TrEMBL record:
GO MF annotation terms: 4 iron, 4 sulfur cluster binding; class I DNA-(apurinic or apyrimidinic site) endonuclease activity; DNA binding; G/T mismatch-specific thymine-DNA glycosylase activity; metal ion binding; oxidized pyrimidine nucleobase lesion DNA N-glycosylase activity
InterPro entries xrefs: DNA_glycosylase, Endonuclease-III-like_CS2, Endonuclease3_FeS-loop_motif, HhH-GPD_domain, HhH_base_excis_C, HhH_motif, Hlx-hairpin-Hlx_DNA-bd_motif, Nth
Cofactor mode of binding and number, as noted: Binds 1 [4Fe-4S] cluster.
Boundaries of every Helix-hairpin-helix DNA-binding motif class domain copy: 62-81, 98-117
Enzyme Commission number(s) from the entry: 4.2.99.18
Alphabetical list of Pfam families matching this protein: HHH, HhH-GPD
Keyword annotations: 4Fe-4S, DNA damage, DNA repair, DNA-binding, Glycosidase, Hydrolase, Iron, Iron-sulfur, Lyase, Metal-binding
Protein's UniProt name: Endonuclease III
All copies of domain HhH-GPD, residue ranges: 27-174
Binding site for [4Fe-4S] cluster: C176, C183, C186, C192
BP terms from Gene Ontology: base-excision repair, AP site formation; nucleotide-excision repair
Length: 204
């Protein structure tokens, strides 16, 4: 059974299913990546597709996604979005930003994640890692993720947009961590405003 769970988990996260990408991104709001992964795994091991999720009791959905935090709000949102997709889009996830943004609980970051990871369409999903690292490097000087997205779209070639989020998230999870930055392992210190400022302050 454990091996079956592992195989199914890999399928959930690697098949680029637009519905699963959308739901996972909704569950990821205001929580850590490992909590998002666990909640998504719990949900899709129990309910295999959008129709099963839409018909699921809200109490059961709450239990399955509880690890992601704000579970009552997220469970209600997952069910609401699922039913709306069935009613208005025949159970399919839209592949354009305009219609995605009309879905309840879907903001620009979520829409961009779906476009990039499900449909391979150029966009720049700006999560906490992308926003934070972009400002640490000094390539943008912004307060809001939405503004970071605007600035990155101006300076990053469009052909690199799809890869940008994935690479920066991995970088933020392994090297440029929010609390314990691994500057000694970073290959970009000479280009990083944060590091250069810290280095200069230490040598004054």
């Amino acid at each position: 059974m454990e091996q079956l769970n592992e195989i199914y988990t890999l399928r959930v996260f690697e098949d680029r299913n637009p519905y699963r990408v959308l739901i996972r991104t909704i569950l990821s709001q205001r929580t850590r990546d490992n909590n998002t992964d666990q909640a998504t795994k719990n949900l899709f091991l129990k309910y295999k597709d959008i129709y099963e999720v839409a018909d699921a009791p809200i109490e059961e959905l709450e239990k399955l996604v509880k690890v992601a935090g704000f579970y009552r709000v997220k469970a209600r949102r997952v069910k609401e979005v699922s039913n709306l997709l069935i009613d208005q889009f025949g159970g399919e996830v839209p592949n354009n930003s305009k219609e995605l943004l009309e879905l309840p609980g879907v903001g620009q970051k979520t829409a961009n994640c779906v476009l990039v990871f499900a449909f391979q369409k150029p966009a720049i999903p700006v999560d906490t890692h992308v926003h934070r690292i972009s400002n640490l490097w000094g390539i943008v000087n912004t307060m809001q993720p939405e503004k970071t997205e605007e600035e990155l779209m101006k300076i990053v070639p469009k052909k690199l947009w799809i890869e940008l989020n994935d690479l920066m998230v991995q970088f933020g999870q392994t090297i440029c961590k929010p609390i314990y930055k691994q500057c000694e392992q970073c290959p970009l210190t000479e280009l990083c405003d944060y590091y250069l400022t810290q280095y200069e302050n230490k040598n004054e």
